[in-house]
Design brief:
Elements (H helix, E strand, L loop, with lengths): L2 H67 L11 H11 L5 E6 L4 E6 L9 E10 L2 E11 H53 L14 H30 L1 H17 L11 H20 L5 H7 L7 H4 L2 H24 L1 H21 L3 H28 L6 H30 L1 H22 L3 H7 L2 H6 L7 H12 L2 H32 L4 H29 L2 H16 L8 H29 L1 H7 L1 H30 L1 H29 L3 H6 L1
Antiparallel strand pairs: 1-2, 1-4, 3-4
Protein name: MFS transporter
GO molecular function: transmembrane transporter activity
GO cellular component, one term: plasma membrane
């Protein structure tokens, strides 16, 4: 570590980390204490609530029965009571049975949703049937204690989920606030002071106007550069007039140049701190979009769509969103380059806000499909603005670190948003969750207007090397067709795309986004439970992706990890053959998360390795863009095809079919790469297989 780094670490690095750790620890303690308190209250609050519900239902039903008795009908001859009780129980899942007994306790009528052979299992509320001041019988309303225990357990799960998600969100916000208001300004000041003290007067882009110390230091460096330039111009003019006098001053000029550094340079020392600013924006737009993941297909299926096939009914809005992403993404990058990161992000955020707001305010199926497509277009613009911001402020030496920060925010949103959205949908309803997502997108737009103030300038000032590495600009149509023709003749690229890239996104959208909510809902799981199940994918990706990336780099195991990830995904879905259950769905989600953690990062390395010849002429960016487009088209097809499978064979059989598809495509990918490796055993491409 250099002397400047030691000085910077001593001045602010350790104190900032200590402050951050202290505040985070305080948040953990407070949130944990509140969660434990809520946990302890869950049973004593829920039981009286269910008791009140049973009493209220009993009062209403007994009043209706007493009214019928008032017409002179004997209690033993009331018609249609069991059927009426059955309808009431269907609308009130928390009630286990309804019974009417006479004064001696003999059961006259009853309807039940549970086995009542063990009466100690039930909480019984008895209400008298009073006619003309005399009790003629009793109405009994029962609540199954197992149902109570399940509700308490679910409530405690929700408390735990709220604890985890609130801590993750607090971490993102705390990191952003500390970076914006303390870490980045202090690092800027300390770095400039250390460089000026060491004789480095090179100019960086000017600091914000609200940073007076950094602005003063920048002014000192600017004055030093101005004086040095004036000295060189004066020496040059005097060289023509008095060459001998200037010759005697040449050693002094050379010594000045050796001791001090002047001129302009790009700013590369605040990369991490700049990316943290856009990390929170990435988190916000992903959070806004993913809130509806646990219930979107169920909500779509609840809206009337006359004449539409049942396989398309629930899946079409998801496909519309993914098509909006796929078709907008190739143009969004170039548009963001021209318009600037700040303006393009704000435009994308406002588009997402409009799409979510329409979804929440207009309960119409056609409006839902159009709004989802619009939301997908806005999502693509926001994504490319954030990715472009990372590319603007990184180079080949630190781009992986910058992208890791960017992708990390997406993974955190993948964990938090579905869980929060499921809990809110159970308690507030679908439409309010969409409106909450619209408010989050609006907040993201307002935040971007503040923190990305310099992004317009930096997007234009990026060095040529960085700009050429950006995979955002679309090539001319003729070049794209030529490149596509060459890629079609590349067996490895075709195998990687058709047998791995497309199936991976197909399974992600078809299984995780569409089938999981549909299947779990059909099994009787609540939206909160669906959100908790979906979280598992985000946890697996966040925890294991860096590990598998390290393994792939160390052992050159890219193709093996891609094949193994797909095989694991398929094997995790096949056990549903023995019976559909929440555990089987959880197994499939876990296998998908682990499998895609193994394969996703390795796929891009393989793309670069197997297309070296094409990249020499077209560049890596257009090839990666072509691969990404194929992936996104696969993602758009996932819900559509899976919806048809559900309509024809049922949700469990659809999951089994997806598992078989994942297994077969991955085995075929492994065989093709093994055959290609035998045909071309030497070189990096052969080593990749």
């Amino acid at each position: 570590m250099s002397q400047t780094s030691h000085r910077t670490e001593r001045l602010y690095g350790r104190p900032v980390r200590q402050l951050f750790a202290f505040v985070l620890a305080l948040l953990v303690v407070v949130q944990t204490a509140l969660s434990l308190y809520a946990w302890s209250l869950s049973e004593q609050r829920l039981l009286p609530e269910l008791g009140r519900k049973a009493h209220t239902t009993g009062v209403e039903l007994s009043a209706q029965m007493v009214r019928a008795l008032g017409y002179g009908i004997p209690l033993q001859r009331l018609e249609g009571v069991p059927e009426y009780f059955s309808d009431v129980l269907k609308d009130n899942r928390d009630l286990a049975y309804l019974r009417v007994t006479d004064r001696s306790g003999t059961v006259l009528y009853g309807s039940t949703t549970a086995d009542t052979s063990a009466p100690e299992r039930f909480l019984d509320t008895a209400l008298p049937l009073v006619l003309d001041g005399k009790t003629v019988g009793h109405l009994h309303v029962g609540v199954d204690q197992r149902y109570v225990a399940a509700r308490i357990r679910e409530l405690r799960y929700d408390i735990g989920i709220v604890l985890v998600t609130s801590l993750l969100i607090a971490f993102e916000i705390l990191w952003f606030v500390v970076t914006l208001n303390f870490t980045a300004p202090m690092r800027h000041i300390v770095t400039m002071m250390a460089r000026i003290a060491g004789g480095d007067f090179r100019q960086r882009p000017p600091p914000p106007s609200d940073a007076p110390i950094a602005a003063h230091l920048h002014g000192l460096a600017e004055n030093a550069n101005r004086e040095y330039d004036a000295l060189l111009r004066d020496a040059e003019s005097r060289r023509r007039q008095a060459p001998l006098q200037v010759a005697r001053a040449e050693p002094l000029l050379r010594r000045l140049k050796s001791l001090y550094t002047f001129g302009a340079t790009t700013e590369g020392d605040l990369v991490t701190h700049r990316i943290v600013l856009v990390r929170v924006l990435s988190f916000l737009f992903m959070f806004a979009e993913m809130l509806s993941r646990p219930f979107l297909p169920v909500y779509a299926a609840s809206l009337p769509a006359p004449g539409l096939d049942s396989g398309l009914h629930a899946s079409l809005p998801i496909t519309a969103f993914l098509l909006g992403v796929a078709l907008t993404m190739p143009f969004a990058g170039g548009w963001s380059d021209r318009l600037g990161r700040r303006s393009s992000y704000i435009a994308g955020a406002l588009t997402v806000m409009a799409g979510l707001a329409v979804t929440g305010l207009v309960p119409d199926y056609l409006a839902l499909v159009v709004a989802r497509a619009v939301t997908g277009a806005g999502y693509a613009v926001m994504f490319m603005a954030c990715q472009g911001y990372v590319f603007d402020h990184t180079d080949s030496g630190n781009r992986a670190k910058g992208m890791a920060l960017f992708v990390g925010a997406i993974m955190v949103a993948e964990i938090c948003a579905p869980a929060v959205g499921g809990i809110l949908a159970d308690r507030l309803g679908y439409r309010l969750v969409f409106l909450l997502g619209a408010l989050v997108a609006l907040g993201a737009a307002l935040l971007a207007a503040v923190v990305l103030r310099g992004a317009q300038r930096h997007a234009l000032d990026a060095e040529p090397a960085t700009a050429s590495a950006r995979p955002t600009a679309a090539p001319p149509p003729g070049a794209s067709l030529t490149l596509l023709g060459r890629l079609v003749r590349n067996r490895r690229f075709v195998a990687l795309s058709i047998l791995s890239g497309i199936p991976a996104k197909f399974l992600y959208s078809g299984f995780l986004i569409f089938l999981v909510p549909v299947l779990l809902s059909s099994l009787g799981h609540s939206k909160s439970e669906i959100g908790r199940y979906t979280m598992l994918y985000g946890f697996a990706s966040l925890a294991l992706a860096p590990l598998f990336a390290h393994v792939a780099d160390r052992y050159n195991a890219y193709a093996r990890l891609v094949a193994a990830g797909g095989i694991l995904t398929g094997l995790g879905m096949l056990p549903v053959y023995f019976g559909a259950s929440g555990d089987m769905v959880m197994l499939g989600i876990g296998a998908l998360g682990i499998g895609q953690s193994m394969s996703i990062s390795a796929q891009l390395v393989l793309v670069a390795r197997v297309t070296r010849n094409e990249a020499r002429d077209a560049g890596t960016g257009p090839i990666v863009g072509m691969f990404r487009l194929l992936e996104r088209l696969g993602a758009a097809a996932g819900p559509l095809v899976t919806g048809m499978l559900v309509a024809r064979n049922g949700a469990p059989q659809a999951m089994l079919t997806l598992g078989a598809f994942a297994l077969m495509s991955s085995l075929a990918f492994a065989l093709v790469f093994m055959a290609a490796n035998r045909a071309t055993p030497a070189g990096p491409e052969g080593a990749a297989a």
